[in-house]
Specification:
Blueprint: H1 20-34, H2 36-44, H3 53-56, H4 60-73
Helix pairs in contact: 1-2, 2-4
Length: 74
């Protein structure tokens, strides 16, 4: 039997196979709470970040968002 009471809002919900559909909805809302752009990146793929350092400062937010997505997923 799945248990969902007493969840922390700062920790992602634990995966429970028997309650997958509930877990997937709760996980979606948890990720969206991290930022809607985080959810969009998970759906659509990582943002492309230039490899040259001098161009990186202009696109700094893309790299930060990609890192935030990986942190959320891990």
């Amino acid at each position: 039997m799945a248990r969902f009471e007493g969840r922390s809002i700062s920790c992602p919900p634990l995966f429970e196979e028997e309650a997958y559909f509930h877990w997937s909805n709760v996980m979606k809302y948890f990720i969206q709470d991290q930022g809607f752009e985080v959810w969009e990146i998970i759906k659509d793929g990582f943002l492309e970040v230039p490899k040259k350092k001098k161009k990186m400062s202009a696109n700094d937010t893309k790299a930060k968002l990609n890192t935030k997505v990986m942190h959320t997923l891990l």
